[in-house]
Amino acid sequence: MTWLRVVPAWCWWLAALAVVAGGQEIRVGAGKTDAATARSEAATARNDLADYRLEVSERDRRAAAQARTEEQRRQALADEEGESARKKLELAQGRAAAAESAAGGLRGEIARLRAGRASTCDTITAQQRQAGASAVVVLGGLFEESDRMAGDLAEALERSRIAGLACESIYNGLSAKRRDRSE
Fold first, then answer.
1. What burial letters (b/e) apply to 43-57, b meaning 16+ CB within 10 Å?
2. How far is Cα 65 from Cα 71, in angstroms, rounded to an integer?
3. In angstroms, rounded to a whole number, what is the distance separating the alpha carbons of residues 183 and 180?
4. Separation between Cα atoms, residue 139 and residue 183, nearest integer Å
């Protein structure tokens, strides 16, 4: 211990100060290294985040474009089927008009027969003539009414059939495309 007393006290203080300063320098250097590592990791994280945002943006853009394409395809299919149904309805309306024209001719014939029946029945007694005329009138009226109703019902039935077939065709077209994509 005598050699410890040979060194003046201020040197011991200076040595202690040097050790403390060296320790602080090591801590500061480690802190700077940690800060540089953290900055590097933050920059990498920012780059990764930017890449992820770009990837998500691109994925969203592709999904939106695909959805637009699918919507346009579906609309085109619906438009095509609608046009086909409209043409069929026009054809059915033309047929209904022709049938109504033919029914009008039959009604005219019934009216002519009624008039002819009335003129030929002049020789029959008044009572028989009245009974015969009323039967022809009643039967003619029934025939006209049933013919008119049959035409209306046939037209309504044809319209609903065409509309149903168009809807079914649109549904089948959309379902077939959905099944093709899932396979």
1. eeeeeeeeeeeeeee
2. 10
3. 5
4. 64
What pLDDT digit, counting tens, does each position of 141-179 carry?
777 788 778 878 888 888 888 888 888 888 887 777 666
Angle at the Cα of 68 from the Cα atoms of 64 and 168, rounded to 5 degrees:
135
Nearest Cα to Cα of residue 82 among 179, 74, 70: 74
Under the banding of pLDDT at 50, 70 and 90, the label for residue 82 is confident
Cβ–Cβ < 8 Å for 89, 159: yes
- Give the C-alpha separation, 161 to 118, whole Å: 44
* Angle value at C-alpha 56, between 55 and 57, nearest 5 degrees: 90
**Angle at CA 114, nearest 5°, toward 108 and 120?**
135
Taking the domains of the chain in order of start, what are their residue ranges?
A: 17-182
Rama region for 5: left / alpha / beta (φ>0; ψ in -120 to 50; rest) = alpha
Picking from 98, 124, 102, the residue whose alpha carbon sits closest to that of residue 110 is: 102
In the numeric block, which tokens belong to residue 164?
């149903």
